[in-house]
């Protein structure tokens, strides 16, 4: 099976066409034994030296606030620096959750949580893990979108690395300024296409910070081994360029050779500083750069684009889950996308690959079940000469169609998927047309944040008389229609990327291959229970996300070993237990 990604790589190179002698270097060492120690063993709160006194209370990695025992307060010179009460972590969590619930605005809750992360790292992750369904929309979409828009105003202290054009020629030195040396996962953005909000420049840092918080909370990757990075090449956003509080470079975006040279220096410096096995996740790059970067570095680095590949894997898992409600196989269904950018074409390609795997038909054949609509209408063969390269595989024989409604009527899809980034584009007429020829129309309105969703859950259920199977990118509340409560699904990338990342890390993967994405998708789909299906859910509840991530990690790691792309040898006998044992837990440690 050849993917589109493989085809756009120079010479058709694949990640499997590598000299595996180039797998040495990198790796992450638990230098202080904190993660190997059991919870009742004593650990030393190392910084550069042993943290003690006032500095210990200001160190988020080791600070426990009022949970320090009197013995610890004496040993580390903090008696008298805290009120005379010892509070359990559970009680601290309860108090903080109560305080956060008092805030009326989601952005206030976001800043309160970010402040907590800067004060007490373990309590932040304890709170997030134990209340994931309530707090995920705060640290991630939709609230993180508003946070990015206002990042210049709410910025207080650095949470990651900023690499701008001013650092050209010095990027390796900049990487060495980061206090942690053992990095496993980097999430990097250039801020050009933040969610559905457009070019936010340097203020896009909220996205890597939020993503890596989820790598830890949901996937169990150690926070000390995560590095958020924003590459600032300017912005074309006039509002930001004229904003006196904007924190980035006040210039138009660099393009062409200047941009490519900066990215090349960055990628080389990352490998030189952190080794071969550091996972680099590209996040919210614009289409014209995202595909090129993935193709260029896919055979030389361990890279992954969440917008193209993560979204695709989570949507494919939802489609597989939906088959339990719709019946048939993927090959029996017809798919229509509104949006033909990174997300749309990435999802379409993974669906085509999975159908090819199931039916043994060439991927060129399975693509014919999938149709895409962009801003100019249905993508058809008569438009091929004017299409961008990543759209050309989806140009099928068909008369021109200019509107989504006409495309729905002409193609008669069983599945309608929105990745347009434009809100309210699944109109009443479009949804009603889907319901005319489908008993259970499957409608996925995936654009983020909530304001950009192609239609709301209430609209989907109302316009189909409660027959729709619906999922969105950002969360919607349950909807009551004709006496029945419908619980909308959330096709959230957070289902996939934390487990995928964990699987790549624990196997010591050196490259990401399409089959690993299929393995992640299958791992997620396998967690949808019969009870979930009876409720009309195509995804499992987020309350089980750590367990789900462990299963995905085990599936991915198994595929890495199978493909011969693993460097952590020998292969563990039970990959699920191994994944669970590697996951970070935020419980407080006892200091000697």
UniProtKB/TrEMBL annotation:
User: Where along the chain is a divalent metal cation bound?
Assistant: 283-284, 307
How does the cofactor attach, per the note? Answer: Divalent metal cations. Prefers magnesium or manganese.
| SUPFAM superfamilies attached to this UniProt entry | Aminoacid dehydrogenase-like, N-terminal domain, NAD(P)-binding Rossmann-fold domains
Name the Gene Ontology biological process terms.
Answer: malate metabolic process
- Give the reactions, separated by semicolons, that this protein catalyses: (S)-malate + NADP(+) = pyruvate + CO2 + NADPH; oxaloacetate + H(+) = pyruvate + CO2
**Cofactor(s) in the UniProt record:** Mg(2+); Mn(2+)
Q: Where is the Malic enzyme NAD-binding domain?
A: 308-561
Q: Which SMART domains match?
A: malic (SM01274), Malic_M (SM00919)
Protein's UniProt keywords contain NAD: yes
Q: Keyword NADP on this protein?
A: yes
Residue ranges occupied by any Malic enzyme N-terminal domain in the UniProt entry: 117-298
Any one cellular component term from GO for this entry? chloroplast
Q: Name one GO molecular function term.
A: NAD binding
Indicate the residues that form the catalytic site.
140, 211
Which residues does the record give as (S)-malate binding sites?
193, 448, 492
Q: Which CDD domains match?
A: NAD_bind_1_malic_enz (cd05312)
Identify the PROSITE patterns for this entry. Answer: MALIC_ENZYMES
> What role does it play?
The chloroplastic ME isoform decarboxylates malate shuttled from neighboring mesophyll cells. The CO(2) released is then refixed by ribulose-bisphosphate carboxylase. This pathway eliminates the photorespiratory loss of CO(2) that occurs in most plants.
Recorded family membership: Belongs to the malic enzymes family.
Q: Which NCBIfam families did the record assign? A: PRK13529.1 (NF010052)
Protein name listed in UniProt = Malic enzyme
């Amino acid at each position: 099976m050849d993917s589109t990604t493989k085809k756009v790589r120079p010479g058709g190179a694949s990640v499997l066409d590598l000299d595996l002698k180039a797998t040495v270097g990198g790796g992450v060492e638990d230098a202080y034994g904190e993660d190997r120690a059991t919870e009742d063993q004593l650990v030393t709160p190392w910084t550069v030296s042993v943290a003690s006194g006032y500095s210990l209370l200001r160190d988020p990695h080791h600070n426990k606030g009022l949970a320090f025992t009197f013995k610890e307060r004496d040993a580390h010179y903090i008696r008298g620096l805290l009120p005379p009460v010892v509070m359990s972590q559970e009680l601290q969590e309860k108090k903080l959750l109560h305080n956060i619930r008092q805030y009326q605005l989601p952005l206030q809750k976001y800043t309160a949580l970010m402040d907590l992360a800067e004060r007490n790292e373990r309590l932040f992750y304890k709170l997030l893990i134990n209340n994931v369904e309530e707090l995920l929309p705060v640290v991630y979409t939709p609230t993180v979108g508003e946070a990015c828009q206002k990042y210049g105003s709410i910025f207080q202290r650095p949470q990651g690395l900023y690499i701008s054009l001013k650092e050209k020629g010095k990027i390796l030195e900049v990487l060495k300024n980061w206090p942690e040396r053992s990095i496993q996962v980097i999430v990097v953005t250039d801020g050009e296409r933040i969610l559905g909000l457009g070019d936010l420049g340097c203020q896009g840092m909220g996205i890597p910070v939020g993503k890596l918080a989820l790598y830890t909370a949901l996937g169990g990757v150690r926070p000390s081994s995560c590095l958020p990075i924003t590459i600032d090449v300017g912005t074309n956003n006039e509002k930001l360029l004229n904003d006196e509080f904007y924190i980035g470079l006040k210039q138009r975006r660099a393009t062409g050779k200047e941009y490519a040279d900066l990215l090349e220096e960055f990628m080389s410096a990352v490998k030189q500083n952190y080794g071969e096995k550091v996972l680099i996740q590209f996040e919210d790059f614009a289409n014209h750069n995202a595909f090129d970067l993935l193709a260029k570095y896919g055979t030389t680095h361990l890279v992954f684009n969440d917008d193209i590949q993560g979204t695709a894997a989570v949507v494919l898992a939802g489609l597989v889950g939906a088959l339990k409600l719709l019946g048939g196989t993927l090959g029996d269904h017809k798919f229509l996308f509104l949006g033909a950018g990174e997300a749309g074409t990435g999802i379409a390609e993974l669906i085509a690959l999975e159908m090819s795997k199931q039916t043994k038909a060439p991927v060129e054949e399975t693509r014919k079940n999938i149709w895409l609509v962009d801003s100019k209408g249905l993508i058809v063969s008569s438009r091929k000469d004017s299409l961008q390269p990543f759209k050309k595989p989806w140009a099928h024989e068909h008369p021109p169609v200019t509107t989504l409604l006409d495309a729905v009527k002409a193609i008669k899809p069983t599945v309608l998927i929105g990745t347009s980034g434009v809100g309210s584009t699944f109109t009443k007429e479009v949804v009603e047309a889907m319901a005319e020829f489908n008993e259970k129309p499957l409608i996925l309105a995936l654009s983020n944040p909530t304001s950009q969703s192609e239609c709301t859950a209430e609209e989907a259920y109302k316009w189909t008389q409660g027959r729709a199977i619906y999922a969105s990118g950002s969360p919607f509340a349950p909807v009551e229609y004709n006496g029945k409560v419908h619980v909308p699904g959330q096709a959230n990338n957070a289902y996939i990327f934390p487990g995928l990342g964990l699987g790549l890390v624990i196997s010591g993967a050196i490259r990401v291959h399409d089959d690993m994405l299929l393995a992640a998708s299958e791992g997620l789909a396998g967690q949808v229970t019969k009870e979930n299906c009876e409720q009309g859910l195509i995804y499992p509840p987020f309350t089980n996300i750590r367990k789900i991530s462990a299963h995905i990690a085990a599936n991915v790691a198994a595929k890495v070993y199978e493909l011969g792309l693993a460097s952590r040898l020998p292969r563990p006998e039970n990959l699920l237990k191994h994944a669970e044992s590697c996951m970070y837990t935020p419980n407080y440690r006892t200091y000697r």
